[in-house]
Amino acid sequence: MLKKVLLAALALVCVPNLVLAANDKIDPETYLCAELVSNETLLRGEPPLFEGLQIDGYASAAVKMDVASPDAVHIILNEVVNWCQTRPTDKVYPIWEQMRATGPVPEGDWNARTSTCADFALNQDDASGFIIWLDGYNRKANNTTKSILNSDADVRAFIDACLLSPKRTMLEVLQENAKDAPAAK
Predict the structure, then answer these.
(1) What 3-state class would DSSP assign to 122?
(2) Cα 116 from Cα 157, distance rounded (Å)
(3) pTM of the model
(4) Is residue 19 one of the residues assigned to a domain?
């Protein structure tokens, strides 16, 4: 549900007007290859970008790469899906991190440390994918489970706060708005 609301409101940076699936926040550290290759988005013939963006942001923080690159996400996602086909019990994150660390230095306009809320306000269509990527980046960079991807309300609160704070970085505003996941019932 969260994915549908976030990505329907803002066109995903990697694929504008993407048809959405019902997936939510993942834990990049524990996400298994079996989950990736059985993802309903992938089974429909589309890349599971919501999950890929989270993992890429997380891996990028680990290898000290602050730039979000749609091209890198697409390339690594395709390679990891292929790699995972015969390794369903392996975790996705270690191979993704290795590919991110050994691949080319990504280039792009969205930078975890410098992109501001004014940048977001001026280009909300491209920023939606960056929000997902930045959430993964923040979780790894700050060793936290707090996220804005827990609920539609958390995403909306982040977007509203960012629009009210154009001079601040998106990362600062995300860190203030990120919350722990609600307790399981």
Answers:
(1) helix
(2) 16
(3) 0.86
(4) no
